């Protein structure tokens, strides 16, 4: 990926084809592809009023790819927030310590959340969403 030389919106090419030469959008199949696509989209985010038509089309495509991947990565919606976290922890073979790191909180709090003794707050949901690469609101159900 050639995006490491692009540090801001002004560094981005103006045309769709030049943007594709920098980072060719592809279907996202794994976390690395997801993170790379999000990295490029983040450079465009917030500049919609300044974008050329090509940049706007490119940004829309990246957002569509990201949304599709995130939608596919969220387990069935009938899971409550704590059940979702337990499911993801089991699926990814994560310990309570790893969940604590993902939360940015103590091991004790992670264990309480995993046991259903504590609720997941909005801050926790944001951190977990970033960690697992899914929408934070999935943890607020």
Question: Short description, anyone?
Answer:
This is HTH cro/C1-type domain-containing protein. The chain is an all-alpha fold.
Descriptive report:
There is one protein chain. The chain is mainly alpha-helical and 141 residues long. The protein folds into two domains: 3-73, no CATH class; 81-140, Orthogonal Bundle (434 Repressor (Amino-terminal Domain)), CATH 1.10.260.40. It is 57% helix and 0% strand. It contains seven helices and no strands. The chain is elongated, with a radius of gyration of 18 Å. 21% of the residues are buried. The mean pLDDT is 87.
Give the domain tally.
Answer: 2
Largest sheet: none
- Succession of helices and strands: HHHHHHH
Share in helix: 55-70%
- Rg from alpha-carbon coordinates: 18 Å
Ends apart, CA distance between termini: 36 Å
The total strand number stands at 0
Tally the helices: 7
Shape: elongated
Helix vs. strand class: mainly alpha
- Sheet-strand content, in percent, reads under 5%
Mean pLDDT: 87
Quick tags:
mainly alpha, 7 helices, 141 residues, elongated, 57% helix, Lambda_DNA-bd_dom_sf, Cro/C1-type_HTH, 434 Repressor (Amino-terminal Domain), HTH cro/C1-type domain-containing protein, single chain
Question: How are the elements arranged and paired?
Answer:
Elements: H1 16-22, H2 31-44, H3 53-73, H4 81-91, H5 96-103, H6 107-114, H7 122-132
Organism: Rubritalea profundi
InterPro entries: Cro/C1-type_HTH, Lambda_DNA-bd_dom_sf
Protein name: HTH cro/C1-type domain-containing protein
């Amino acid at each position: 990926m050639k995006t490491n030389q692009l540090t801001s919106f002004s560094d981005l090419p103006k045309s769709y084809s030049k943007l594709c030469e920098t980072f060719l959008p592809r279907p996202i199949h794994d976390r690395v592809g997801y993170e790379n696509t999000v990295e490029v989209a983040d450079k465009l985010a917030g500049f919609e009023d300044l974008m050329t038509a090509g940049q706007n089309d490119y940004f829309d495509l990246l957002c569509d790819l990201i949304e599709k991947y995130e939608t596919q990565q969220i387990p069935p919606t009938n899971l409550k927030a704590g059940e979702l976290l337990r499911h993801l922890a089991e699926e990814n073979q994560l310990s309570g310590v790893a969940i604590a790191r993902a939360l940015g909180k103590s091991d004790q709090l992670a264990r309480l959340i995993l046991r259903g003794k504590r609720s997941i707050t909005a801050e926790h949901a944001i951190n977990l969403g970033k960690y697992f690469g899914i929408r934070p609101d999935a943890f607020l159900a």
